[in-house]
Amino acid sequence: MRSDSTVQIALVLPDLLGTYGDFGNAVVLQKRLAWRGIPAEIVPINFGQAVPESCDIYVVGGGEDTAQTLAVKHLQDNPGLQHAVRRGATVLGVCAGIQLFGDHFTRADGVTRPGLGLIDSTSHAGPNRAIGEVLAKPLGGLFDGVLTGFENHQGRTTLGPAARPLAQVTVGTGNDGKVEGAVQGKIVCTYLHGPVLPRNPQLADLLIEWATGTKPAPLDLPILDQLRAERVKAAQRTTDASSRG
Ligand code: GLN
């Protein structure tokens, strides 16, 4: 955190990587910090702008293959995010995020591009687009409850030994039909949109804990619990319907 104790949340390339309202992840972090009396500001970094290395949390959203290719080039040319990771900043990468943080990714058109090398992973185009609701069971005791979200991606991701999966898939595809997302140091990646943090406040609080060094006080927001329960039920209904054929 900065000396004036305002948490800075970098919203990385929302003009390229912002499908399905992924900017909402930054809003949720800011709100959940503010509700605990911790000032926080969102720092949008658009295409063409330098990437500051001093922010506390970096939020990267999803995008189409072309946008993702432009984004990775921009982030290679402006390595503020990579410097921030070396310093121990907290990072959330969604969908295209998990792919471009890895060693390389192969797009749907067969072209392979180098990634940022921030996590031990590679991504390749899968046999079909994975589209729909996802439920997954968090692994490694990172947080309680089910992980819920929406996926729409062609890519599939294979993790190397330095990265561990975020969750085990029970409904949907995630990385490969078995596991979902990646965790390496203070980087969390997921295929889940929704956006993911409004739908999974426990993940938002984990990122806040990593960024501030303090476990955040619980928030009493029954409406969120109710919305989550509805989402989980809806995802469950999708699978029940498809398994009935
Ligand atoms: N372009 C990537 C894919 O299709 C990521 C998509 C996304 O971010 N939703 O796999």
UniProtKB/TrEMBL annotation:
UniProt record similarity statement: Belongs to the CobB/CobQ family. GatD subfamily.
Name the record gives this protein: Lipid II isoglutaminyl synthase (glutamine-hydrolyzing) subunit GatD
Superkingdom, taxonomy of origin: Bacteria
Gene from which this protein is expressed: gatD
Subunit structure: Forms a heterodimer with MurT.
Gene3D superfamilies xrefs: 3.40.50.880
Described purpose of this protein according to its UniProt entry: The lipid II isoglutaminyl synthase complex catalyzes the formation of alpha-D-isoglutamine in the cell wall lipid II stem peptide. The GatD subunit catalyzes the hydrolysis of glutamine to glutamate and ammonia. The resulting ammonia molecule is channeled to the active site of MurT.
Keyword terms: Cell shape, Cell wall biogenesis/degradation, Glutamine amidotransferase, Hydrolase, Ligase, Peptidoglycan synthesis, Transferase
Keyword Iron-sulfur: no
GO biological process, one term: regulation of cell shape
GO MF annotation, one: carbon-nitrogen ligase activity on lipid II
Domain CobB/CobQ-like glutamine amidotransferase stretches: 8-200
Catalysis performed (reactions): beta-D-GlcNAc-(1->4)-Mur2Ac(oyl-L-Ala-gamma-D-Glu-L-Lys-D-Ala-D-Ala)-di-trans,octa-cis-undecaprenyl diphosphate + L-glutamine + ATP + H2O = beta-D-GlcNAc-(1->4)-Mur2Ac(oyl-L-Ala-D-isoglutaminyl-L-Lys-D-Ala-D-Ala)-di-trans,octa-cis-undecaprenyl diphosphate + L-glutamate + ADP + phosphate + H(+); L-glutamine + H2O = L-glutamate + NH4(+)
Listed HAMAP family: Lipid_II_synth_GatD
Binding site for substrate: R129
PROSITE patterns the UniProt entry points to: GATASE_COBBQ
Pathway: Cell wall biogenesis; peptidoglycan biosynthesis
